[in-house]
Amino acid sequence: MSDFDYDLFVIGGGSGGVRAARIAASEAGARVALAEESRYGGTCVIRGCVPKKLMVFASEFCHVPEEARGYGWSMQADGFDWTVFSKQLRTELDRLEGVYKSLLDKANVERFDTRATLRDAHTVELSDGTTKTAKHILVATGGHPVRPDIPNADLGMVSDDIFLMDELPKSVLIVGGGYIACEMACILHGLGVEVSQYIRGAQILNGFDDEARGLIADAMETRGIDLHTGTNIVEMCPADEAEARDADAAHMGAGVGETGAMVGDSSMKGTGQGRSAEGKTGPVWVKATSGREKVFDAVLFATGRAPNSSGMGLEDAGVRLGRGGKVEVDDYSQTSVPSVYAIGDVTDRVNLTPVAIREGMAFVETVFKGNPTPVDHALIPSAVFTQPELGSVGLTEEKAAEQEEVEVYCTSFRPMHSAFIGKPDRVLMKLVVSKENRTVLGCHIVAPGAGEMIQLAGVAVKMGATKEDFDRTCAVHPTMSEEIVTMRQPVRTA
Ligand code: NDP
Questions:
Q1: What is the pTM for the complete model shown?
Q2: What's the pLDDT band for 265 if we cut at 50, 70, 90?
Q3: What are 342-359's pLDDT values in tens digits?
Q4: Cα(191) to centroid of ligand 1, in Å?
């Protein structure tokens, strides 16, 4: 009999932690406990992928009446009701959280609905001061969104807040050009919000294939998202403060105040999602690096995420932290303290739910099943749920060309569904192929349903398929994705 209370204590009840706890208990017979301070399901289920995808579904209906009319239906939209949707969303998230809890309960994982921190290599401390010992401890605490370090940044929302809004703002400024910023820009625009987006770089979706992100940026702008590249916030404050400041300046004989053109703008009459540290709500005045001044009903910072590692007792217990507070781990997710492991976003490797789950499974395989299993982070397919979606696996053209000479097979066209009704929407299918051995190094798809397509293309790419393997595969006709197996000539070498 072990001297420890448990074989495994998991800190964090998100996708990775729950999977590891459940499998260790149910398949390896381990005595397992798990502590979660917030809601079970973590970022993905409660404030990330799941509610986001449901919002994508909701927003995509905005195109239905117009498209249906093009196909001969008579159809009108009566408008979107956020209160109806968000009530349903809350019910669904409650259901899913219940599923997560019951999975743990059925696997005999003991749950502590409280915060836990690391006391030493084998001990965790719960928020009421009680301690529990375990042979192994798994840190699976995830990450959180971060606001930029500028005055009044707390007037802006972060992604967690989006799902809790009582009402939709009439206008929003989204800051950032990554996954969350672009997905939220498309979602909110589809739900009828006037969306502006400030990106400090030259293009959205840094790190993705240039041609693909260019097409998505074009599509977003065509749909009406007001995209400003090379732009950031220099100053922000509650709109009423800016208005008062301008009135004072005018009173002092300074003429029209800085914000004169925009204060009183119709967006000030919106719902007021902005928040200040004192809990004040209301529209937000923003000055951009370009000099543009505008009042927005809400500002959303989608400027990245950071690991949930501070205040956890990790460093005091000897767990080494790396840049930005990520927990340093080896290929087996083991930290610098041998009995402590870490998985998921807290390790800041590839911050995606299925990756955290795989890291959890590999941890159980390694520690509880006697089968040391490194986590395979190569060729992970992923999707950005913009409208249109981006599906991507492997190297971008730019990265591949740095590594070796490549042939690029690429086509961009208006698919049947859009062409028939005269819509400008284009799709893109792209393969990046090694010139030397013909391996498909990267596949990039911009299209409705690209997330579904890339899952399947990802199998071929992961298997090391060559361009000729793609060519040997018969097309499925008529589909958009058939182009991925019918591109005969490279458009260029790089
Ligand atoms: P990202 O790191 O993807 O993007 C952050 C964006 O904010 C970048 O455009 C960055 O610019 C910009 N930025 C950072 N700091 C500042 C600043 N101080 N001022 C202005 N702009 C700034 O983070 P996200 O928050 O979008 O997403 C976090 C992670 O969540 C992703 O990496 C992804 O792993 C995961 N995720 C995955 C999804 C999916 O699979 N569909 C969906 C949502 C999230 P720059 O590029 O110049 O650095």
A1: 0.94
A2: very low
A3: 999 999 999 999 999 999
A4: 22
- If one residue of 56, 186, 200, 227 were mutated to test the ligand 1 pocket, choosing by the most ligand atoms within 8 A of its CB, it would be 200
Mean pLDDT across the stretch 431-444? Answer: 98
Contact 157, 41 (CB under 8 A): no
Residue 152 has pLDDT above 50, yes or no: yes
For residue 268, what pLDDT is reported?
Answer: 35
For atom 2 of ligand 1, the residue with the nearest CA is 304
**176 alpha carbon – ligand 1 mean position (Å):** 7
Give CA angle at 39 (12, 54), nearest 5°.
115
- What atom in ligand 1 is closest to the CA of residue 303? 7
Give ligand 1 pocket residues (Cβ under 6 A). Answer: 148, 175-181, 183, 199-201, 206, 232, 302-305, 351-352, 382-385
Average pLDDT, the chain: 94
The yes-or-no answer to whether 6-145+306-368 and 382-493 have a common fold is: no
With the most atoms of ligand 1 within 8 angstroms of its CB, the residue from 54, 150, 160, 179 to mutate is 179
- Tell how far the Cα of 206 is from the centroid of ligand 1, in angstroms: 9
DSSP H/E element including 8: strand 6-11
Q: Whose CA is nearest to atom 47 of ligand 1?
A: 201
Q: How many residues does the chain have?
A: 494
Q: What is the mean pLDDT of residues 182-189?
A: 98
CA–centroid distance, 19 to ligand 1, in Å, is: 26
Distance of alpha carbon 120 from alpha carbon 128, whole angstroms: 17
382-493, CATH topology level: Enolase-like; domain 1 (3.30.390)
Helix (H) or strand (E) holding 241: helix 239-251
- Render pLDDT for 303-320 as a digit per residue (tens, 0 to 9): 999 999 999 999 999 999
For 6-145+306-368, CATH gives 3.50.50.60
One of 3.90.79.10, 3.40.120.10, 3.50.50.60, 3.40.30.10 is the CATH number of 153-301, namely 3.50.50.60
Residue 279 has pLDDT above 80, yes or no: no
Q: What would the two tokens of residue 75 be?
A: 């159809």
pLDDT of residue 253: 64
Which tokens sit at 210?
Answer: 């240039």
Q: At what angle do helices 82-106 and 49-60 cross, to 10 degrees?
A: 150
